[in-house]
Amino acid sequence: MFKENMDWKYRIRKPEMGTQLNWEIYFPPGLATWATENVKRLLDEIKLPNQPLIRLRTFTEKLKLENANSHQIAYLYEYGHFLRDIRLVIAKNDNWRTSSSDTEAEMQKVIESAIPIAKKLFKADDNVKDTKIRNALHGSYFETEITVTISLFGEFAYLRGIKAPLSTSAPVPEDLAHALLLYTKQFAEWDETLNTFLYLPFAGTGTFGTEWTLMQESTPTHSLPKKTIFQDFSFYPEKTIAHYQKSKLAEVNKRKTNQFWLDTDPALLAYQKKELQNWEKFFKSKIHWHLATGDFFRVNEPLEISEMDLSDIEEFGVFLPINPPYGFRKNERPTNDDTLYAELGGKIQQLGDYFRNRKKKALKQFAGFILCPTEEKWLLVRNHLKGFSQKTIHVTHGGIDLRVLFFDFKNQF
Fold first, then answer.
1. Which range of residues forms the domain containing residue 40?
2. pTM, full prediction
3. Three state DSSP letters for 52-104
4. Count of domains for the chain
5. DSSP symbol at 368
């Protein structure tokens, strides 16, 4: 039961930048093993001397990262765009009891009691409001242990601060979209030196396209338009982050990606054009996105429509993320969805042959993924993909269990 003066077994003191602290890391549902591997990968990329040896434990919905300092966490914060949240553990108690009837109310009281602890984490001259802190605090419990954490983002990390809302759309969250793109690259052993044709059928609001660009540019979180709470903490390692950014910019691949956004709904064009303007303004440079209205199944010459010139390109790759389909959800196709998914499998196969024949020996990779809402639809697609390497995982989006089928045509070259 909640005590007015909570007897915290552990409460964080005002830490220095090198202090070893405990954290909780959240990711899109269904990606626990993959998220663990990629958090380790990012931490291994850090080239700073005398960093503490961290401990990472995997749970269904989160990772517990122990003994990591703010320099290490800053790298995850800046470049782990597949993460949903990073939270610092600020208080714990292992002698908590609650009754099932008022657990939520008691939890809220516990969170309120931790506000003074959280305030000590902020810069001395930062007059941060209790409301801002309260919104960033989270409570959780397991048996008799209760934990209070504070989010480094304040709101979910997938909100990049650039994309405009669209009332008629329910896009895949940016963190999940980023994860699926990265997962495909790793599955297909994607060659980052290739010029790439990113083909987005059923483009919708273009989330896969914008996340690809963030990845390609190694965009750090702190440069995005939104402001996070991490930047207000006294232990925010500003110089270290500047060092990370300098190192990353030196690694940014200058090979071009031409994106082709295709959707059946002409009303989306105005939104997509605005998106293009917003992102060009953010990056302060021209972005190679071609926007068009059309039916994926009837577009037989995507390279010609997108105006991608292969004449001076010796080698290229094709990347195909498919979230079917925006137009069908608006009843713009007369066929049922079973026929649709069978057609999708055949279309992917056809595109592999099309790109391979488009310029002799120039196509080096052809990979992508498709989101399938049922086992039956997943089978319809995978049975049509002859000669493709395949892998399937399960993720959750909007309460729906989705099968993600990754495919790779590389072995055909």
1. 10-151
2. 0.94
3. CCCEEEECCCEEEEEEECHHHHHHHHHHCCCCCEEEEEEEEECCCCCCCCCHH
4. 2
5. E
